[in-house]
Design goal:
CATH architecture: 3-Layer(aba) Sandwich
CATH class: Alpha Beta
Helix content: 25-40%
Oligomer: single chain
Largest sheet: 4 strands, parallel
Strand order of the largest sheet: 2-1-3-4
CATH topology: Rossmann fold
Radius of gyration: 13 Å
Length: 129
């Protein structure tokens, strides 16, 4: 599964962190951005750490055609027209607030919303958590 957003510095990284945490190695998880930032959003890293998930070693990266063709599920979050479309893939577009520049309370709410969405996605795929 692939989680995509613009900068790959917040939402998609949090979603990938939740997916890896909840599903372990039962699913392959990738995240990427249409215009990757230079660093992860430090508030996103801190909010995930509060939940016991360490994403601090991750780096923003672009998505690649090869990875997206291999993914069964592609989740987009705010990348609009730049989000890729591949026939035969399951797509979900999650309207989730961008945590960039937001206070910690908002980032925590985004983290929690993403957790619930990832749990729902994994459940719909029959992946035990």
């Amino acid at each position: 599964m692939a989680f995509l957003c613009v900068h790959n510095a917040g939402r998609s990284q949090m979603a990938a962190g939740w997916a890896r945490h909840l599903a372990g190695d039962t699913v392959d998880v990738f995240s990427g951005g249409s215009e990757p930032g230079l660093n992860l959003n430090p508030m996103a890293v801190a909010a995930m750490a509060e939940a016991g998930i360490d994403i601090a070693a991750e780096v923003p990266k672009p998505w690649t055609d090869e990875v997206l063709r291999a993914a069964d599920v592609i989740v987009t979050m705010g990348c609009g027209d730049t989000c890729p479309v591949y026939p035969g893939k399951r797509y979900e577009d999650w309207e989730v607030t961008d945590p960039a520049g937001q206070p910690v309370a908002v980032v925590r709410a985004v983290r929690d919303e993403i957790e619930q969405r990832v749990r729902g996605l994994l459940a719909s795929l029959g992946v035990p958590t």
